[in-house]
Amino acid sequence: MNLEILEFFEKNSVEMSVSFNEKGMVMHTNLATDRALDYPAGMFGMHISDVFTGVFNKTPEGFETDLAFGDAEKPVMIYRRNRTCFPTRIRYIHTGIPEYEYICLLTDVSAEVFLEKRSVQVLKEAEEAARVKSEFVANVTHELRTPVNGILGNVRILLEEITDQKLLGTLHLIERGCNDMNNIINNILDFSKLETGKFTLENRAFDFRGMIDYVKANHTPKITEKGLQFFVTVSPEVPDRVIGDELRIVQILNNMLSNACKFTSVGRISLEVLKTARMQNRLELFFIVNDTGIGIDKSDHDKLFKSFSQVDASVSRKYGGTGLGLNISKQLVTLMGGSINVESEKNKGSSFSFSVWVDIPEDEVDSVSSQVDDRKMSFFATADDQEQDSLYMFASAENSRELEDKMSKLVLAVEMDNWEKAEMFMEVIRQLTENAPQEVKSATLRLKMAVQKANYDRTMAAHGKLETLLNAGGTGAGTQGGGQI
């Protein structure tokens, strides 16, 4: 390294720079070093061990240090002339130039260390604040729940004793208000647990179809009371028993069906459950809740799953709610390895869907496939065993003929505005494409969702896309060979 270049570098460097010879005597320091270490007259002639105490040690031959030559930086504490210290990162360089044999370059990292300590402190304060908030919410909601349940218990006693219809109507309103308050309390508790990371799933084996029957029975009175149709279907591929958090799946379904009922005045509400994937003993279940309600503008879709958020203030005033239900549902679905989505247009209804992963009980793994095959037989009761097997072999001759027939009849049912029959044909199409490539299965699912919403334009568009894929796959499925419905 040229001496003039070295001196220029030392004088103009923003880093602190100390040059010393092989005896450890300081030969040069730059202005940044003199200011930082508070040596107005410089440090010329001082021994390097007096400048960097603890980093360099004085020996009869000169000095010794644990620092290694090169670009690697090492954090060290450096002392000023008044013996106060500050943190730096130091580099140790061997120049090979007489009188300037060695150079130490130092960077003051006081600001970085302060910010790091401050960030740790802020994190601890935030964690403590979250803990305090969580405890506060738990205590307050517990205190709220006690009087609410007290009122609810007394109301139910009165409901058994009072016969006056006017008083009974008032008591039912109070009972409903208490139930709504308990639901709000539960949502706040769940939200608090999820936000603080203290929420855990409780997976156990349960009767899946029994759970769906329970959900259906719970919502049927409210939905039919509004004059709405209510349809619930479970695909044959879904086993009778699975392992998962039954309570939380019910909670998500209750939220979605309650919203569907709340925002739908005329038409129908439907719930469908499909099996969309299997990995060894794990199943992905796909739930779809359709309604013909007020719908949601596409620009407002991103607001739906945010906490304490409604599409607009008028929704909260007219229909009520805390805006926590869908946010909690999204977090629960994520914990169960799935995702949640919405398709909706203003005044054209909504379609909420979500997926979760569940396990098959070990003692039922072998029986699941046979149960599924038995349920599928109901759709093709006249087929013999060999023909039955080939029906589900995607792109086989039998599979292609059956797809062509059902695709044709689906179009006829839609043209005749017979959506109930269209759903029947759609379910058969879905089963016939169960073993198809993923692109075909996705197109089938989109068509099924369009049919469930009774949306003519979307159904025909989705039908055309699926038909194109089927033809490209060599199935020959089309609509030209239509039959009687």
For the record, give the distance between the C-alpha atoms at the N and C termini, rounded to a whole number.
93 Å
Shape field: elongated
The total count of strands amounts to 14
CATH topology of the largest domain: Heat Shock Protein 90
- The total count of helices amounts to 15
Q: Which architecture of the largest domain per CATH?
A: 2-Layer Sandwich
What is the overall pLDDT average? 82
Class inferred from helices and paired strands = alpha+beta
Largest sheet: 5 strands, antiparallel
Uncertain segments are 377-384, 474-485
Strand order of the largest sheet: 2-1-7-6-5
Tell me the domain tally. 4
Helix content: 40-55%
Please, what is the CATH homologous superfamily of the largest domain? Histidine kinase-like ATPase, C-terminal domain
Description of the molecule:
It contains 15 helices and 14 strands. The chain has 485 residues and is α+β, with helices and mostly antiparallel strands. The protein has four domains: 3-108, PAS domain (Beta-Lactamase), CATH 3.30.450; 119-195, Helix Hairpins; 204-364, Heat Shock Protein 90 (2-Layer Sandwich), CATH 3.30.565; 380-472, no CATH class. It has a five-stranded antiparallel beta sheet with strand order 2-1-7-6-5. It has a five-stranded mixed beta sheet with strand order 9-11-12-14-13. Helix 7 (246-262) runs antiparallel to helix 9 (325-335), helix 12 packs antiparallel against helix 13 and helix 14 packs antiparallel against helix 15. The radius of gyration is 36 Å and the shape is elongated.
